[in-house]
Each structure stands twice: as C-alpha cells, then as structure tokens.
Specification:
Helix content: 25-40%
Number of helices: 10
Length: about 260
C-alpha cells in the first residue's frame, strides 16, 4: 500500500471530509518522495507532531508518522525555526506526516471518546457533546454505579493519575459524558443533560465554581492521556485491515 492509497483508506474510514469546521489540516501534511510508489510497511503513532516523535519514528524505521496534533492548523506556517527543523527532519528521512484531529475525536468505533466509554464498560452509549456544530463526544451509563475513585482507577494504570478531579456530584455515579482533550469549557453540556460525571482532558480555573455549584463531578484526565485511546485502537484496526505494522510512541506531556 502506498501513501496515497493509505490516504484513500483513512479519508473514507475516518470520514475526514465530514468535519468542515475543523481548523486542522487533516490528512497528508508532509508526503514522502514517492507517494504513488513507495510501499508503506511501518507506521508510528503519536499524539503530537514534535521533534521527539519525529526522531523516534525515524529511529524505528517508520514510513509514516500518524498524529492527532499535526504541524499545520488552519493555514500554512512559514518554514523557519522549530517548524523548519521538524519539516526538514521529515523530508531528509523520507518520513511522511499524517494528521487527523476532530475526525479521530469523534469516530464512533476507534475515536478517542468512543474508545474511552467502551474502555470504562459503559452501556446505553449514544452521542453527546458538540463543538462548532460537530458532534464529537459520547455518553453512557454504568450497569452498576461507581464512585469517582473507581472510575479513575479504570481510566489510569500504575502510577498514572488524573490531572484534576472535582468530586462535586453524586457519590454513586451512573451517567457519564466524555469529550477528550481541551474540552473543559464544554462541561455545561453535561450539566444541561443532567449527567453525574464529565470526563475530559483539561479544565480551567474559571470553571471551578460553575462545576461545584452545579453539583457535577469532573475528571480532567489530561489532554495527552485522553487522546491516546483512539490512536491505539486505530493502530490495531489498521494492522488488522491493512497488515501494516504499527508502533505507538508514548511521549507524555503530563498535561
């Protein structure tokens, strides 16, 4: 499979053109030298396109670096400084860069939010939460109510922990809404739907009292951590469907 053929697969499977309000440049951001000829044998997956992920992808011999946060947002950036260094590293090593932002948040099978609600073992799953008129989140309910510590234990392993926890709602949590990443400002949608718990990546100081006074609990699991779920599931999907080896590059920001 070539880069252009891979692009056709991703465009259809993740429905890249279904999110016109996404400011990201979804798809191929930097192509390789022979996008119609060179066979793709290994893909590196990372949350962020940065010098560290580029260098690790080169080190393992990847043909594509597939990221959630790419290098181009809304418009082209001039090629100088760090931006030049990153692009130069990609081109000099014939490493393609592929980015998918909102379509990977929202996908109902392998998207970050769908992956999190399934990982938690929620039932009665349905769409929840929109951004710029695009439906991106999911919600569901626990078959048996859990407290906030039990939910956190499902989300994290080992020494990992939430960026912030606001246990201001019910002790016994049944209903949960999930929007990954920097969606703290969308907590109002969980309040509006009378959910017990809202899970996102990060939440700002100015929302503290809004959350407390609305008697809802929030887990801010970290922008990075909540946006690893979909990438890992997409890796498995592509390995199964396309038989292309995938490697997840874990480069946490603790944010």
């Amino acid at each position: 499979m070539t880069l252009f053929e891979f692009n056709d697969y991703i465009e259809e499977y993740l429905q890249l053109k279904a999110y016109p309000q996404d400011p990201s440049q979804n798809g191929i951001q930097v192509q390789n030298s022979k996008p119609k000829e060179k066979a793709i044998q290994k893909i590196a997956y990372a949350v962020d396109a940065c010098q560290a992920s580029i260098e690790k992808a080169i080190e393992i011999g990847a043909d594509i670096l597939f990221v959630h946060h790419g290098l181009f947002w809304g418009k082209e950036a001039v090629l100088k400084g760090l931006h030049y260094n990153r692009i130069a590293s990609l081109i000099e090593n014939d490493l393609a860069l592929y980015a998918v932002h909102i379509p990977l948040d929202a996908h109902p099978e392998v998207g970050h939010n769908a992956s999190i609600v399934k990982h938690l073992g929620l039932s009665n799953i349905e769409g929840f939460g929109s951004w710029r008129s695009m439906d991106i989140g999911f919600k569901g309910s626990f078959p048996k109510a859990k407290n906030i510590d039990e939910v956190s234990a499902l989300l994290f392993k080992g020494s990992e922990k939430a960026l912030q926890t606001m246990p201001f709602g019910k002790t016994n949590i049944s209903s949960v809404g999930v929007i990954s990443g920097g969606a703290g400002g969308d907590v109002w949608q969980a309040v509006e739907q009378n959910l017990d718990l809202y899970i996102t990546g990060e939440i700002s100081h100015d929302l503290y009292h809004f959350v407390k006074e609305n008697n809802i609990s929030v887990i801010a699991g970290g922008h990075y951590h909540t946006e690893t779920f979909g990438l890992k599931n997409l890796l498995q999907k592509i390995e199964k469907d396309l038989h292309i080896t995938g490697v997840f590059l874990d480069i946490p920001t603790n944010m």
